[in-house]
Structures are given as C-alpha cells and as structure tokens.
UniProtKB/TrEMBL annotation:
UniProt-listed PROSITE patterns: ENDONUCLEASE_III_1 (PS00764)
Source lineage: Bacteria, Pseudomonadati, Bacteroidota, Cytophagia, Cytophagales
Keywords: DNA damage, DNA repair, Endonuclease, Glycosidase, Hydrolase, Iron, Iron-sulfur, Metal-binding, Nuclease
Protein name in the entry: Endonuclease III
Protein's UniProt keywords contain Acetylation: no
Protein family (similarity comment): Belongs to the Nth/MutY family.
Species this chain originates from: Spirosoma montaniterrae
Domain HhH-GPD: 42-201
Domain of life: Bacteria
Names of the cofactor(s): [4Fe-4S] cluster
A GO BP entry: base-excision repair
Molecular-function annotations in GO: endonuclease activity; hydrolase activity, acting on glycosyl bonds; iron-sulfur cluster binding; metal ion binding
Pfam families from the UniProt entry: HhH-GPD (PF00730)
Length: 239
C-alpha cells in the first residue's frame, strides 16, 4: 500500500477539524465484551433502540449464553425480532457461541486483552460471522487496541472527502486509513466516533447537509456537485 504525504495531510486535516467540532472524547464502550460482541451483530442495519430491545429481550428469555446457544432457533429469532434480519442473525449468534464455548470452554473473551493486536484480530476474524468491522469495534472500544473500525458512516464520509478512492471497500479502508494515523487508541477512537457522528448527523446518505459542514472546502463530493460515482453513495442530482 503506497501512502502519499498529501493523503496523510488531508486525513489529519479532516480529523483535526472534526476533533474541534465534536470535541475529543475519552474511550468508552460497553463494560462487558460479550455484550459488545453480540450487540454488534444485532446492530447491523438496525437502529440503536431496536438493537437494545433485541439484546434485552434475548437475555431475559435466555439468561445464560449456553441457553442462547441451545435455544430453539424460531424462539431465538422471535426474541431478537426488533433487529433487522433476525433469521440471519440468530443462527450466526448460535454458531458463534457454539464455536467459542467449544474452543475456549466458556462464553468469555476477556483473554483478548492479553493478546497482541494482530493476534486478537486474527482470533476474532476466525470466528464464524465476525468480520473486520465487528472485530475492530470490539478491540478498540473494550480492549483499547489501536485499530480503526470503518462502518458505513466512516466509509461514506471518507470516500466523499476523497480520503479513500471511489471504489475502495470499507474492509480495505480499515488498513488504508490506519496506516496514516498514529497507533494510539484514543486518537483512533476519536477518528472513528467523529466520522461516524458526522455521517449520521451531517454527511447523511441522502441529502447531506453540506451548508453546515466544516469540511466543505476540502470535500471532493461537494465540489463535484454530488456527481461523483462512489461505491458508498447513490448518485445525486445536485448537492
Ligand atoms: S461537504 Fe457535504 S458531502 Fe462533503 S463531507 Fe460535508 S456533508 Fe459530506
């Protein structure tokens, strides 16, 4: 992967502006790594409120992880039905728990804290149904490892700004952006949070609020009048 100083400078510039706009945060996450792991699966294409309801209902009906693993599939699907795609997520969760308990003897991933970042990433992404987004969210939020989660919001905003190429996937963006940033968990947490918030609140999928955006003068998507073809974004008439 080649890194030009211009790309690094533009990445740092956008990061600095969003730090000023949103304010630098200390790292926070769910206290229980297993909650983060399963909650992240439930959260895929689901609002936060619906994810919380799905998780709470699942834990009320099946209070232990062994009970979740062994639940009749239709019952687990029903318990998490407020999350989108429950019929896909329920078997994912059961496979994951079965694998975890078989391999380690318990539904507990606290041992990741003592692994190197590379080892922990490898271990997590070898689990069934766990990709780089879930693995990096868990490792950064719960274990403060220096990784960079790139979800749909981070992907869209960095692509519109031209920090990554128009066809770069979210999976590839993890490594590209990470290579330009210091290996510091607090910096990476703020980069993730701020681009995530910006994508949710300002640089939205449809009708981005460019007139309110502190990044407008550096944004290639804005300068193109919304006419850039990006893998993360539908074509717009004019922004
Ligand atoms: S100027 Fe518009 S398209 Fe560019 S980052 Fe800001 S909100 Fe997004």
């Amino acid at each position: 992967m080649s890194i030009t100083s211009d790309e690094t400078t533009r990445t740092h510039d956008a990061h600095g502006r969003l730090n000023e706009f949103y304010g630098v945060q200390a790292i926070y996450g769910r206290a229980d790594p297993m909650h983060e792991l399963i909650g992240t699966i439930l959260s895929h294409r689901t609002t936060h409120a619906n994810e919380v309801t799905a998780y709470r209902t699942m834990r009320e009906r099946f209070p232990t992880w062994e009970a979740v693993r062994d639940a009749p599939l239709p019952d687990l699907i029903d318990a998490i039905r407020t999350a989108n795609y429950p019929e896909v997520k329920a078997p994912y969760i059961q496979n994951l728990l079965a694998h975890l308990i078989r391999e380690t003897g318990a539904a507990n991933i606290d041992f990741l804290r003592d692994m190197s970042t590379t080892e922990a990433m490898q271990w997590l992404t070898n689990l069934p149904g766990i990709g780089p987004k879930t693995a990096t969210l868990l490792l950064l939020f719960n274990f403060h490892k220096p990784v960079l989660p790139v979800d749909t919001h981070v992907h869209r905003v960095t692509q519109r700004l031209g920090l990554i190429g128009p066809n770069v996937s979210a999976e590839k963006a993890h490594a590209i952006l990470l290579a330009r940033l210091p290996p510091d968990a607090v910096v990476l947490f703020n980069f993730h949070k701020h681009f995530y918030w910006h994508g949710q609140r300002v640089c939205t999928w449809y009708n981005p609020k460019c007139s309110d955006c502190v990044l407008r003068d550096r944004c290639v998507y804005y300068q193109s009048g919304g006419q850039m073809k990006l893998s993360s974004t539908p074509m717009r008439k004019r922004v």
